[in-house]
Design brief:
- The structure holds 2 protein chains of 2 kinds.
- Chain A is of the alpha/beta class.
- Chain A folds into 3 domains: 85 residues, Arc Repressor Mutant, subunit A (Orthogonal Bundle); 88 residues, Periplasmic binding protein-like II (D-Maltodextrin-Binding Protein, domain 2); 92 residues, 3-Layer(aba) Sandwich (D-Maltodextrin-Binding Protein, domain 2).
- Helices cover 38% and strands 15% of the residues of chain A.
- Chain A has a 5-stranded mixed beta sheet.
- Chain A starts with a helix and ends with a helix.
- By secondary structure, chain B is an alpha+beta fold.
- Chain B is built from 11 helices and 11 strands.
- In chain B, the strands form 3 sheets. Chain B has a 6-stranded antiparallel beta sheet, sandwiched between helices. A 3-stranded antiparallel beta sheet of chain B has the order 4-8-7. Chain B has a two-stranded antiparallel sheet with strand order 5-6.
- The chains are: A alpha/beta, B alpha+beta.
Chain lengths: 354, 312
Amino acid sequence: MDLLAHLEAYVATADEASFSRAADRLGIAQPLLSRRIKTLEEHFGGSLFDRSRRQITTTELGLLLLPYARDVLDRTQRLRRAARSARRSRVRAVGVPADCAPAALARAIRAGTERGITLGMRELPPAERTSGLADGSLQYALVRTAPEQGALRVPLGLASAPGQDGTGTGRPGTGRPGTAGRPLHLEELRPRRGRGAATAAPPPLLLLTEDELPSVEDRLLRSAARAGLPRGRIRPAGPAATALAETLAGSALLLCAEPFARRHGAHWRPLADRALHRGYDVRAAQVRTDASGVPGWLAALLASAVGAVADGHDGHGGPGGYGGPGGYGGQDGDGRPESATGGQDVPARLAARG
Amino acid sequence: MSGAAAYHPVYTGDDGALLDVAETVATEWAALGVRGSFLARNLGTGEQLGFGIDVPTPLASVVKVPLALVVLDLIAAGELDPALPVTVDPGTSSVGPTGLAAFRYPATVAVADLLQLMLSVSDNAAADALLDLVPVADVEARLRAWGCDGIRMRHRMNHLYECAAGAAGNDFSLALELAVRDERAGRHTIGTLDPAQANTGTAAALVDLLRRVWCDEIASPPATAELRRLMGLQVFTQRLSSELRADTLRWFGKTGTFLHLRHEIGVLEADSGDRVAMAALTRADRIAGVAADIDLAIGVAGREAFEALRCR
């Protein structure tokens, strides 16, 4: 027996002195209300109402028990209210990548407060943001995806010492006017021979924790190999501060997003291949019953905090684009397929060559 | 040397930065005792940089590119059978270090495969075997009809050898010495080094030819497509492409080497979609058959030009 529902029927009937009005007040059918009263009377072992007259009246037992019944219902209501307010004041943990823009995170926290929600920002490596959503320790998180699949794309680029761009030309953006932020192709990082060839070893490319995911690293290493860079040039950055120091000193190149590089006064050029950029989705934990999806306001503010650009995931080369990922190459403007190294050359490429 | 100090090529470049790159290349070449022409043009934007682009220069094996286009055009028109067998006899064939020219016994090869040998390993015997089928005068007439001003076809490939041997006996060092001396003096003992008698071209004309081949604006699409494919098969990589070798880049080129001449023309296609046509035509002030530093300087020019001109 649902005692609370039965007590509600009892109290409403006593208040209204009518089965039909009580049923209306509770929004249930009258036969159901009558049945509940009857069950309760059997439970207490005595009549609660006198039904012999036209107007029903509450019996002596009914009057005696009424304050207790009201008390149970009141306390239930207070219990529910306390639970609701506890739920409201609970901190909702949001998993974010390292080096988000603090001002944008602050806007998200304030926007939550205005909506009666307390957000707690947790700076975590990508794998822990995903696992945090699964084990319930995070309510929301910016989860890494492939850039062509994620709702958000953050251009990844190479930070270098001010006045250098890491390609060894000594001319940022190859020195051409208006090309300082020109996209960088990995093959430009191959060491130069001939005049002015660097005597020192070419600077390593440092990978921040945010990009040390197997899938991300895999893709980058493949592209770097195809662009003619040896495996050893790509290394984990370790702590961001020392990696940045090496970068500013000109002895390393740091793979990072533009706001991070700018904040520390480094020169920065985006990677031309958008397939190597960072992709993100804002996701909510699945297990919570009160959290169906991510509120739009939160998703928008987290996108700005992580430095996402507006174009979504049109991965390859629309107007103003940087050109496509490796596999899409060889098509030119008028759609002519690549003219050589086509299918007929494949067997020859596998044969022994002088 | 006073000559080097007085060297002032005419520069080409669409903006100051591109002119800077052109000047850097010319200066680097001059430091090695190299003069000549260089032109690189982005086929998408039309932007270009270079110097000496209208100087007619003896082409050596670079002329095999227009020759191949004429032959491929005849094949595409059905006037020449690509399967036609041609027998090349070392007793009578042209001199050269590679391909059929280096064979010791007669071989029978189809026309289409002669083209492949001519462009992949710069086979002189294959080139002259094609010129037996399509005479020099016909090639020249077709180039005139196509409006390839600045490219002249005047003789067979073996004529290069015959002139050098005629002037210097079979002494390569002497021929080289003559070539370098004549270059300084401005006269021509070896006829195939005289722009008035040789197969010649200018960097501007050669880059324009490449542009028309890559944009299907010359001959017929089957002919230009096959020429692009064959140029992608070249085995020599020590010059323009030497600093542009990666899986993300594809080079379609043709070298030309004769005595003190070191040339290459070609197109670089990048995965990013950028396409840049280039021509490097050089004359060295050095009595050396192998000059790795000059080849490398040409490669450095190719890379600097490509990186300055690529836009995406």
